[in-house]
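If you are new to this repository, start here. Below is one unmodified record pulled from the training split, so you can see the exact layout before writing a loader.
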Amino acid sequence: MTEVASHPLRFYGEGIAYLKKVDTKGTLIVVEGPDGAGRSTQIEMITSKLEADGHAVITTGLKRSELIGAGILEAKHKLPLGKKTLALFYAADFADQLEHKVIPALHAGYVVLADRYIYTLMARSSVRGIGRAWSHDLFGFAIKPDLVFYLDVPPVELFHRTFQKYGVLDYYESGADIGLSDDLFESFVLYQKGIAREFRLMEAKYGIVRVDGSRPVPEVNAELQKRIDAYLGGLRG
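And here is the target side for that same chain:
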């Protein structure tokens, strides 16, 4: 098997100065999609397959920073957060994981599977009225993934999946903080439509591949794994 050549990190903006010369052999794969789209299930299945194929795999996601993650949850539960405060909280969480978990893993040659990335954060901000340029500049330190997938599921189906799983709807994931509707179901649907619209607008710019997430789990996984295997196989010739 041909060894994967090392390559420098690619940033969306100015990047992180002292990391610009870091070479990596790993691969960063992002699985995006709203709550209820099946991201976690797909990442578990992909992880098992890649590890069986001999790859070293590590996963990451939002609110998992040891420094910031717990603080986000506590703040969200105690009081409604302003839209830019919320955005900056998540940006700090993302930055901590990027610097201390993602980049070291890529340098060591791991396949890093991200359960959502900056695209969800930018979509959320845009739906809340924050300018897209502001969000793009905020995440100029983010590195460009090798593959980005978006699991697309209709909002009404998402509602039923989410309610069936949790029995309640998340305050922020329903758009309740921005007053879309007094009816929680309608607010949820309007908010998720807004998020989906933002992802459509980002597809070409960020190379996001839309995947029909409303299909049975094995079908979705087959498509994702086929694309991932093709990419990793191309790296090794």
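Two things worth knowing about this chain: The mean pLDDT is 89. The beta strands are 7-8, 23-24, 27-32, 57-61, 111-115, 147-152, 208-212.
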